[in-house]
Amino acid sequence: MKKLFALAFIFSFVFGSAQISEFQRADSRYERKKKALYNKYPKPNDLRTKREWLLTEDKINAYKEALDKISEEEKKAIANDPPIKNKVTKEAEYETGKVSFLKMLYEAVDLDFLNYSSDTYRATLSFIVDSKGNALDAKIKGNNEDVNAFIQAAFYRIQDKGKWKPAEDKGKPVSSTVTIPLQLILKK
User: Fold this and answer.
1) Handedness of CA 38, 39, 40, 45 (dihedral sign)
2) Is there a contact between 130 and 78 (Cβ–Cβ < 8 Å)?
3) What value does the mean pLDDT of the chain take?
């Protein structure tokens, strides 16, 4: 059973890394096409705006497809180490602290291209920290599905920058759910 769990973890890590490169490919494709569009239409006009929005929709869809693939793979790992339902004696914590984690997450979220209409965005991030300290199954609840997808992608982009300490129940590491409220200040 331990070998199966280790193999599933290695596979999900490799698969997760591949999915992060999917985000990078989507970013690169968007920037390349946007540059070509701006070269073709140097001055803002209705056609450029419409085509830029179509590029944005393509980027959003590429991110959502990558996130769906990550979710499917992580469900398998979670099935082998499901979070406990009862109260734990010690909550999961980020190795350098919650503030450090949030700072990295906020820095990784790139929403400039969306032209979101508000100055701030409030959402809730929930995910599972398994008994080995792996953060899995990120879910974002906020009022804009597209913004949520980019916050979720940022979560996966920073996964390799630090480790979580798993929750404990009576001194034993256990899988648990972590919920964190988010408030992003958006640039205009």
Assistant:
1) positive
2) yes
3) 86
